[in-house]
Amino acid sequence: MIDLGISKMALIGAVALIVIGPEKLPRVARTVGTLLGKAQRYVADVKAEVNRSMDLDELRKMKDTVESAARDVENSIHTSTREFEQSWSETTEAALTSQVEASLPSYRHPGKNWRLKRGATPQWYKARNGVRTKALSGAARVARYRPRKFN
């Protein structure tokens, strides 16, 4: 690059004083200073952007490795659960078929109280409205509703 020492800076200042003149030199120096500051800030922004993109690339690589590891773990868990479920179902089926065939009788419908069932009406509603909930035999009905003798 350009090597600017004190002697070269003094030479540039003297030439600028002669060419530009003493009245315009402060304004030109301010303008040159602001332009140099803007250039330095632009270079710093470009460096920061490059660093950010490099960090972003590293983070993407790290994210890809973590995601692939997570997928591998998930796949291994799924395969182990499938194997476990398959072995569990085989053992339970074998155990149940041997027990069911030996101990359970055939199904028989209970058939109880079919006359008393009146849908899904709650007991408190039946009691309030006087619906019979228990069947009475003929002898019990006669005994209950027989007129009493008063002595």
From TrEMBL:
It holds the Pfam family TatA_B_E. The keyword Protein transport applies. Keywords: Cell inner membrane, Cell membrane, Membrane, Protein transport, Translocation, Transmembrane, Transmembrane helix, Transport. The keyword Transmembrane helix applies. The Tat system comprises two distinct complexes: a TatABC complex, containing multiple copies of TatA, TatB and TatC subunits, and a separate TatA complex, containing only TatA subunits. Substrates initially bind to the TatABC complex, which probably triggers association of the separate TatA complex to form the active translocon. PANTHER family: SEC-INDEPENDENT PROTEIN TRANSLOCASE PROTEIN TATA, CHLOROPLASTIC (PTHR33162:SF1). NCBIfam families: tatB. Belongs to the TatB family. Part of the twin-arginine translocation (Tat) system that transports large folded proteins containing a characteristic twin-arginine motif in their signal peptide across membranes. Together with TatC, TatB is part of a receptor directly interacting with Tat signal peptides. TatB may form an oligomeric binding site that transiently accommodates folded Tat precursor proteins before their translocation. This is Sec-independent protein translocase protein TatB. The gene is tatB.
